UniProtKB/TrEMBL annotation, chain A:
Keywords: Disulfide bond. PANTHER family: CALVIN CYCLE PROTEIN CP12-2, CHLOROPLASTIC, CALVIN CYCLE PROTEIN CP12-3, CHLOROPLASTIC. One of its GO terms (biological process) is negative regulation of reductive pentose-phosphate cycle. This is CP12 domain-containing protein. Pfam families: CP12 (PF02672). It comes from the Eukaryota. Disulfide bonds join C78-C87, C120-C129. Residues 63-134 form the CP12 domain. One of its GO terms (cellular component) is chloroplast.
From TrEMBL, chain B:
GO terms for molecular function: ATP binding; phosphoribulokinase activity; protein homodimerization activity. Pathway: Carbohydrate biosynthesis; Calvin cycle. This is Phosphoribulokinase. InterPro entries: P-loop_NTPase, PRK, PRK/URK. One of its GO terms (biological process) is reductive pentose-phosphate cycle. It catalyses: D-ribulose 5-phosphate + ATP = D-ribulose 1,5-bisphosphate + ADP + H(+). GO terms for cellular component: chloroplast. Signal peptide: none annotated. It is found in: Plastid, Chloroplast.
Length: 134, 434
């Protein structure tokens, strides 16, 4: 069974690990995986999850907005004095929020489901757990 | 048949069923065949046994162990019941960008089996990850100042003044002794400290973040520590990959952010690497002249010598200096290929062994070929490292030294855990039953 996943713009064709390693012998020749530098083609069997719940969508947007705001703020503060405490704290905030944004993206990809999934199973009536519709 | 055994308070039942005279069958699909059951979960036991306990005195518990019916086969079963004090193994992982090392954590927890997930039903912004054997705590949860507080005081998150090391020490110590704690939650979205969450003592506790080795008391609690040392060029390349898609960012802003944080990073975070048992150093490749894309990496696994329960990986001949290019007649690699180095060295006045990989894996057979030439991997079967890498082939670093060494460190931690548990066992009782 071959499955394709997209990762960082590359397509990897993977043989099913359990089948491949059942014999626990070194694998050569036909059982390979290839990293291709091309864009994924139409036939993607596994697609990375996007936000399903309103809460996740809100977090994504909020974090992206915060990045814009805080970069602007840091640029202004540092114009005055690049070695001030205020300057380094401002850029540290940018880093914190950028990482949080990236973590959310990674979570969506690695979990292949909305990070709020288990929370929303228990609390389906909250505003955050409304199904997001584009 | 009923066995009763008295154990001290806080105990784990180590149940090992071995087939007398035969090799224990191992299922290569599961990462471990340890059968360890704690008194508060009987899931690990199969249906022919059940475990009950009756609390007698306040300082000891009596355990009655029943076997429902005879085994159908005529193989001999040796049932070893060992009462061991609950000992949580504590691992420290230091990395910039706090708890963003989700790939390292997932590789690590995957070695022990099971996927690490956020605690179910609790605060959705929790940073904690829990699997069967491991719990991963993000040390940002021990911020004493929230985002507003840090702005007011003029300190970054890197600054020790923004962190409560007393609380960190108390709680890690409690978890290590088998006591559950109410741990605060630092919410990275709001920048506030949320209501605490209950953390049960796990078998393996991983504390991950900026300062796991900063405080000396916390350092003493660590059974093993790892420092992820990313060079400036690679850090820049990775942050570009991470941030360029965001509206707010540009090359300038990414650069400015790294520069502004550098003084605090060099003063407070970087010095921790001298305390680490293993350092994973990530540098730009030397195989491609003037490469600045940061896609091909040179990764060095610096392993401290003389650490209890930790035997460094080596290439061909332990303690010697080896330079190895696996690509040649038996193995064809595509550009830029793979180059390995192994040598003894000194690192901050400690004896270390350094295993280095430069380049990329392009095919499965390259990976298995390399694995077959490495020694002291602490793998349980041939090809385990390759299998683990394949399991997470979509994780970043799966085709280079970062994934390889993270996986190997995971196996080393498993090995350390098993040795620690075996050594902590006290007063074993052995009963043979036909």
């Amino acid at each position: 069974m071959m499955s394709t996943t997209a990762s960082h713009g590359r397509v990897m064709m993977l043989p099913s690990p359990s089948r491949a390693l059942q014999n626990q012998q070194p694998l050569i020749g036909s059982d390979m995986f290839r990293l291709k530098q091309t864009e994924p083609r139409g036939s993607r069997l596994v697609v990375a999850a996007t936000a399903k719940y309103k809460g996740t969508k809100m977090r994504e947007e909020k974090l992206s907005e915060m990045i814009v705001e805080k970069v602007k703020e840091a640029t202004e503060v540092c114009e005055a004095d690049v070695r001030s405490e205020g300057c380094k704290v401002a850029w540290d905030e940018v880093e914190e929020v950028s990482q949080a944004r990236a973590d959310l993206r990674i979570k969506l990809k690695l979990l292949n489901q909305d990070p709020l999934e288990s929370f929303c199973q228990e609390n389906p009536e909250t505003d955050e757990c409304r199904i997001y519709e584009d | 048949m009923c066995i009763s055994y008295e154990c001290d308070y806080h105990f784990t039942i180590v149940l090992r069923e071995s087939l007398g005279g035969e090799e224990e069958e191992e299922d290569p699909q599961t990462s471990t065949t340890m059968a360890v059951s704690t008194i508060y979960s009987t899931q690990a036991l199969n249906s022919t046994h059940f475990l009950t306990s009756s609390p007698s005195s306040s300082t000891s518990k009596q355990v009655f162990f029943y076997r429902r019916h005879q085994s159908q086969t005529n193989r001999r079963f040796n049932t070893i019941i060992t009462c061991a004090a609950q000992q949580t193994v504590v691992i420290g992982l230091a990395a910039d960008s706090g708890c963003g090392k989700s790939t390292f954590m997932r590789r690590l927890t995957s070695v022990f089996g099971g996927a690490a997930e956020p605690p179910k039903g609790g605060n959705p912004d929790s940073n904690t990850l829990i699997s069967d054997m491991t719990t991963v705590i993000c040390l940002d949860d021990y911020h004493s100042l929230d985002r507003t507080g840090r702005k007011e005081k003029g300190v970054t998150a890197l600054d020790p003044r923004a962190n409560d090391f007393d609380l960190m020490y108390e709680q890690v110590k409690a978890l290590k002794s088998g006591i559950a704690v109410e741990k605060p939650i630092y919410n990275h979205v709001t920048g506030l400290l949320d209501a605490p969450e209950l953390i049960q003592p796990p078998k393996i506790l991983v504390i991950e973040g900026l300062h796991p080795m900063f405080d000396e008391r916390v350092r003493e609690l660590l059974d093993f520590s790892i420092y992820l040392d990313i060079s400036n060029e690679v850090k820049f390349a990775w942050k570009i990959q991470r941030d360029m898609a965001e509206r707010g960012h540009s090359l300038e802003s990414i650069k400015a952010s790294i520069e502004a944080r550098k003084p605090d990073f060099d003063a407070f975070i970087d010095p921790q690497k001298q305390y680490a048992d293993a350092v994973i150093e990530v540098l730009p490749t030397q195989l491609i002249p003037d490469d600045n894309e940061g896609k091909v990496l040179r990764v060095r696994l610096i392993m401290k010598e003389g650490v209890k329960y930790f035997s460094p990986v080596y290439l061909f001949d332990e303690g010697s200096t080896i330079s190895w290019i696996p690509c040649g007649r038996k193995l064809t690699c595509s550009y830029p290929g793979i180059k390995f180095n192994y040598e003894p060295d000194t690192y901050f006045d400690h004896e270390v062994s350094v295993l280095e990989m430069d380049g990329q894996f392009d095919r499965l057979d390259e990976l298995i070929y390399v694995e077959s030439h490495l020694s002291n991997l602490s793998s349980k079967f041939y090809g385990e490292v390759t299998q683990q890498m394949l399991k997470h082939a979509d994780f970043p670093g799966s085709n280079n030294g970062t994934g390889l060494f993270q996986t190997i460190v995971g196996l080393k931690i498993r090995d350390l855990y098993e040795q620690l548990i075996a050594n902590k066992a006290t007063a074993p009782a052995e009963i043979a039953k036909v």
